[in-house]
Structures are given as structure tokens and as C-alpha cells.
Specification:
The protein has two domains: 7-87, Orthogonal Bundle (Arc Repressor Mutant, subunit A); 130-238, no CATH class. Helix 4 (134-140) runs antiparallel to helix 5. The two termini are 19 Å apart. The strands form two sheets. A nine-stranded antiparallel sheet has the order 1-7-6-5-4-8-9-10-11. Strands 2-3 form a two-stranded antiparallel ribbon. The chain is of the alpha+beta class. It has helices at 12-21, 40-52, 75-86, 134-140, 227-238; strands at residues 7-11, 56-63, 66-73, 89-95, 103-107, 111-117, 123-129, 180-188, 193-203, 206-213, 218-223.
């Protein structure tokens, strides 16, 4: 069981080393800036730093008459890394608003968030939440309109009491690229493609969420204050054994 109150701050190389220890040879969702062909001494330095923080433990084991070192990862961190390496679905959040950092959300028994921290973007915050609370967490992390942004929380062409009930009256050419403030991509790791996108749109006086398929065709829309409801519906179709 993962302790969802914990968060870990890892440099790019530290996270890369840990994931390689878990057998991950291809990373989905975010780019690491300083891990291409790392020097051996840099890898040893990362291992030492992780050990010093108690995230790695080196133990002597005797096998076949010889002593060997066994490396173990701190249990909660190990469980989060397990989800990252085994995830079949990844949500990638990006924003045009500078105070909302990019995040990758790996979906498994829990949802694991990996978000970049700081201006240099080489430190990653790794944390977890329950799948059933994920829609609200996504909104809290930035995928919702700023409270002080103003504007009308309504979809052009729809009544204000409408919800996530189909394609609505928004035409594909009405979704202007420059009106998109935030983007949440649902990636299938198995198929290595984007399944759908959730777009937070501020178009003049209107703020709303639109959903497109992997080809960019519009599927449906909803009021921005019902984004969590939309995400919950889509997540429940994939994680049918989870109570939402």
C-alpha cells in the first residue's frame, strides 16, 4: 500500500537510475534534460545521493559462497516506480500559463504524478493519489480556469445548464489553437499514441472544456466547472473495478 501523503523530489538522473533499476528502458510522458549518455561518475554520485537520503539501501548477501551487494529501494517510492514502469495509460498535462508546471500522470492501481519543479526543470516531484480522487487532483493541479480570470463559464451554442452530454454545438473549426490554455493528453502506452485530448479553452468571454479524438476531431464539450465529472466518466470506463 502506497503512502499517498509522501512526495519525493528527484533529479533527472536520480529518477532515470531508479527507473532503469526497475527495468524500464523507454520513458513515456516527459523528457529528461541531462541523462543522455551520463558519465559513470555521475551515476555513482546519484546512487550515493539516493543512499544518503535513505531512498536506496545496500545490503551484503552471501550467495554461492561469495558476498554480494543487494540494492533495495525505499518501499513507498518503489511502489510508485512500479506503477510508472507498468502503466498502460499516461495523462500528460501542459499549460500555456507559466505558473502551472507540466505533469505526467501514470495510471495503475494508483495514479502517480511526476511534475517538473523549478526554472531549470531538472527536479521531479513524484507523488501518488487514489484513482477515484484523480479527477479532483487534476483540477487542483491546474486543469481548471483561474478563479480570478473572469469570463463566462458557458459553452458557445449550448445552454448554461448543459453538461457532458455529447458533441454539443461546437464545430471543430471553432476550437482555435490560440484559445487553448491547457491541454491534457490521454496516451495509450501499448499503442504508443494519443487516444484523446481534453482542452481547456478561453475564447473571448467563454471558458469551457472540449474533448477531441486522436485525430483532433471534436467529440464533446462541457462547462469548465464540470471537468472533473467528464474525467471521472472516462476513467470509470477504463478502470471499471474502481469505485468513483
Amino acid at each position: 500500500m502506497i503512502n499517498i501523503d509522501k512526495a519525493y523530489y528527484l533529479k533527472d538522473l536520480e529518477l532515470a537510475v531508479l527507473l532503469s533499476m526497475k527495468g524500464m528502458d523507454e520513458l513515456y510522458g516527459f523528457r529528461m534534460k541531462q541523462v543522455r549518455n551520463p558519465k559513470t561518475e555521475d551515476v555513482y554520485e546519484a546512487l550515493f545521493a539516493l543512499s544518503k537520503r535513505g531512498l536506496l539501501t545496500f545490503r551484503e548477501e552471501e550467495r554461492n559462497g561469495s558476498d554480494r551487494k543487494r540494492i533495495t529501494i525505499e518501499p513507498d517510492l518503489d511502489a510508485m516506480l512500479e506503477i510508472i514502469t507498468e502503466a498502460k495509460h499516461v495523462l500528460i498535462y501542459s499549460s500555456e500559463r507559466g505558473d502551472h508546471p507540466s505533469r505526467c500522470i501514470y495510471l495503475g492501481k494508483r495514479a502517480v504524478f511526476v511534475s517538473t519543479q523549478g526554472t531549470d526543470g531538472i527536479v521531479n516531484r513524484v507523488s501518488a493519489c487514489r484513482i477515484e480522487t484523480l479527477p479532483e487532483m487534476i483540477c487542483e493541479c491546474g486543469f481548471q480556469p483561474d478563479e480570478l480570470a473572469g469570463g463566462s463559464d458557458a459553452v458557445p451554442g449550448e445552454s448554461t445548464d448543459g453538461g457532458c452530454d455529447g458533441a454539443g454545438n461546437i464545430l471543430p473549426d471553432m476550437i482555435r489553437e490560440d484559445a487553448i490554455t491547457d491541454r491534457l493528453k490521454w496516451i495509450s502506452v501499448t499503442d504508443k499514441q494519443c487516444v484523446r485530448q481534453y482542452l481547456l479553452i478561453r475564447d473571448g468571454l467563454y471558458e469551457y472544456c472540449a474533448v477531441t479524438d486522436h485525430d483532433g476531431r471534436h467529440i464533446e464539450s462541457c462547462l469548465s466547472n464540470r471537468i472533473a465529472e467528464l474525467l471521472r466518466k472516462d476513467l470509470s470506463s477504463v478502470f471499471s473495478d474502481t469505485v468513483f
